[in-house]
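Homework help thread (please don't just give me the answer)

Our assignment gives two proteins as sequence + structure token strings and asks us to describe the second one. The first is just a warm-up. Here they are:
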Amino acid sequence: MKQLRFSCVLVYATVIIFLTSCGGGGKKSDADTTAMDTSSTAEVTPVTSTVVTTPQSMLVATHKVANFAKWMTSYEEHDSIRLANQIHSYVIGRGVQDSNTVMVAVKVDDMDKAKAFSKDASLKEAMKKGGVMGTPTFNFVTMVFQDTAQVSTDIRASVMFTVKDWDTWQKAFEEGKQSRMENGLATRAYGHDVDDNHKVFVVVALTDTAKAQAYWKSDMLKTKMKDAGVEGEPKRFVFRVVKRY
């Protein structure tokens, strides 16, 4: 009898040990749950860069119009003609000093088509209908840098000038970023003529107009430009962005 009792106790103890080792039939303890929660990976939002360095072919046209509203209507009516020539509207700006001087920047898929289109009779007729006055200026540009981040102002300046050597100028320009920012200028895009990288095209945002104007006249900038190999006086056009596509 004693032997039977001992065997029963032994079996009962074995069952208890088995159930305890299995977590009470599958139920997780608070300690286990806490450990799992602690080890979970927090979700991290990826940071998206606003800088684009893939070369972008663009056509930048500047001209004077008799009436901006009339011209704008005519411009948008002829969007199908631009698309047929693989040209895509991008930005329209109006001069700060003369609001009837208009700058049009478009993206180009085929530069040869864009060059031919700029000389096409249909474009001349459309521009005449829209009230374009005088001879428009066309610049065919390869943009090598663009910053699409939002800034606090719609005031921009396009700057064109000639350099002795593109690589020398680009290195100096990149090194001067902080100085420009401290003087109210934020780089939005830069590149060069599609056929001649000695002809440079830069677009900056004026975050502080007074500082920017003073900087453009400063001896410091003149020295920086000379060291970077800039030849002659830059041509600046200050405008306000009135439409983005």
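The one we have to describe:
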Amino acid sequence: MKLLVLHGPNLNLLGVREGTSGGRLSDLDAALKARAKELELELKVVQSNHEGVLLDTLAAEREEVDGILINPAGLFGSYALKEGLEAVGLPTIEVLLRPPARESVVGEACVLQVHGTQGGFEPYLQALETFSSGVFTPEQAGPKKTLGRKKDEPSTKAAPASKPSPVSLVKSVGTPAKSLARAVEAGGSTKTLGRKSAPAKEEAAEARPGKTLGRGSKSATPASDLLTRALVRQKISDRLAGKLTPAELAAWARTQYQAVQRGAPAESGHRELLEESLQSLTLSTLPASRLSDEQLVDLLTRLDEG
């Protein structure tokens, strides 16, 4: 897996004012490359103080890499960078060495946002481990453009266990992660979140179980194949009761999410909520996005009220 690492403005001066060794950009890049080698990742690292250079790099490298790790630094409010990431359509993790003064606009185009809380390079290393877990690559084999389009069953390999790290995940449960959808079906159309053009027809479809929602040209879908809030709630309840391990729940959610992104039917009127819930569960075993029991209960409540 090849990743593009983008360092934003003034990171070339990282650690310079402190005048100490071990905390400069060259040290960060060395730590990144060493960890990438351990994880069998390939990196292309670019630092620039100019927004246009970062955008040009995104466009030039979009066909050469499988994911992006970006620290926009002072450009965290850049709509141009946000649009560039959305146009490229690759899974992206935003990394900041410390929380920004305001909400990050760039982070809206990212799957995850990992912010440092105690200094050091841990957020960057955590982002590498997240990519290495395979959560953004449904099919491990084959060229990048075939991601999510093979008929073979996706890998359910659990993420490697890691020690707790001084980083905080900013992407909250229920926030759409558009890049994850694009990772599942690279090159496909973007999701039509919230586009419910005919509520009356959707209610009628709900009253006829077994009908394939929105896919009238194909045969009826068995009720057991329909993704519902009740099914997701049951899986979360099984996890809380100890009937499922965290890795088993994440693997199940990942398989369901991929199926929905490829057109599998979901409970009418709740597709967006189900997608967001499955995204959160898919990432729930990763150190940067692990869900506590309390957060799982909150997710149960959202599914019940939705």
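TA reply:
I won't write it for you, but here's a hint about the kind of observation we're looking for: Strands lie at 2-7, 42-47, 67-71, 92-96, 112-116, 167-169.
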